UniProtKB/TrEMBL annotation:
Repeat found in the keyword field: yes
SUPFAM superfamilies in alphabetical order: Annexin (SSF47874)
PANTHER family per record: ANNEXIN, OS09G0453300 PROTEIN
Highest taxon listed in the record's lineage: Eukaryota
Pfam entry (one): Annexin
Gene Ontology, cellular component aspect: cytoplasm; plasma membrane
Protein's name according to its UniProt entry: Annexin
Organism listed in the record: Parasponia andersonii (Sponia andersonii)
GO molecular function term, any single one: calcium ion binding
Length: 325
């Protein structure tokens, strides 16, 4: 049965935690109890639940996700996975996503890029600490040691280096110089793009500085830098770089496209919808929703209702979309 969108009256966290404890097996009640909560409220509920029942609410949700592996329970598993992500602290959430991305048969580079592009250096540091504490591994080394090196890996290693550097304030002069270097090594030369130059820039500049560089490129040359990556001799590196540049330069458009593909069943990134909606809650999701409507002529919540079968999973996603309006 689908969840009715009601707001639970505030009766104290103890009462709500008791209701959650009594709701296992009834996912609609879990959605009602958790989906509308702020990050601070979710952290408080997690602590209160553990104090009352001696178990971590996130771990309980993850166990519920793993308890039924039948094909018929696939939607319930996705909901439990999304709810567990929803309850995690930001750095725990990113650490969990990073580990999950690396454990895929095909590494989910998009999820990793979104983390390193979308977070501040201080947040990346906390995420790495959480990753090491949880998985007893070093995230940087796990990325460097990916079995089959490829362009995404090279770019990620550069972004890792960028977050370790000490950046000065954003500089218009540096942005213009880097834009010209990108032109000279790309569409301004007859051969293939010089990867070393691009990787050097990515490794030495902050994300805000890179964003200004791509804006300067458009101002100087009259078109987006990504257009220069669509030349006939473009290869895998250019394709990976184009995705990363879009994520840096215009996040709302990038995430709107990711949501659109996931809602329509893109097999290459099925988890994008819950990953994006949970990750971007409370930050710039309003801009993402506006970009979605502008690009695809439909409200995000309406697209979710049209494409995902009725039920608790859909209700959770719709609640997030409404919450972030």
């Amino acid at each position: 049965m689908a969840t009715k969108m009601l707001t639970i009256p505030s009766r104290g966290l103890e009462n709500e935690c008791k209701e959650i404890h009594d709701s296992w097996g009834q996912l609609n009640r879990l959605v009602l109890a958790l989906a509308t909560r702020t990050r601070i409220e979710r952290q408080q509920m997690r602590k209160t639940y553990e104090a009352m029942y001696g178990e971590d609410l996130v771990k309980r949700l993850q166990e519920a996700e793993e308890s039924n592996r039948s094909e018929a329970a696939a939607i319930s598993r996705r909901l439990c996975a999304a709810l567990s992500l929803w309850m995690l602290d930001l750095h725990e959430h990113d650490a969990f996503l990073a580990r999950e991305a690396l454990q895929h048969d095909d590494t989910n580079y998009k999820a990793l890029v979104e983390i390193f592009v979308g977070r501040k250096s201080s947040q990346i540091l906390l995420m790495k600490q959480a990753y090491q504490a949880r998985f007893r591994r070093l995230l940087d080394q796990d990325i460097i040691n990916i079995d089959t090196p490829n362009p995404y890996q090279k770019i990620l290693v550069a972004l890792i280096a960028s977050h370790k550097a000490h950046h000065a304030d954003v500089s218009q002069h540096i942005a213009k110089c880097d834009a010209r270097r990108l032109y000279d090594t790309g569409e301004g030369s007859p051969g293939a793009i010089e990867e070393a130059v691009v990787l050097e820039i990515l490794s030495k500049r902050s994300i805000p500085q890179l964003k200004l560089t791509f804006s300067s490129y458009k101002h100087i040359y009259g078109h987006d830098y990504t257009k220069s990556l669509k030349r006939a001799n473009s290869g895998e590196f250019e394709s990976a770089l184009k995705m990363v540049v879009k994520c840096i330069y215009c996040p709302p458009n990038y995430y709107a496209k990711a949501l659109y593909g996931s809602i329509r069943g893109n097999p290459t990134d099925k988890g994008a919808i819950e990953r994006v909606m949970v990750s971007k809650a409370g930050s710039d999701f309003d801009d993402i929703q506006k970009a979605y409507k502008r690009k695809y002529g439909n409200e995000l919540r309406d697209a979710i209702c049209e494409s995902i079968p009725p039920g608790d999973y859909r209700d959770f996603l719709v609640t997030l979309a409404r919450k972030m309006n």
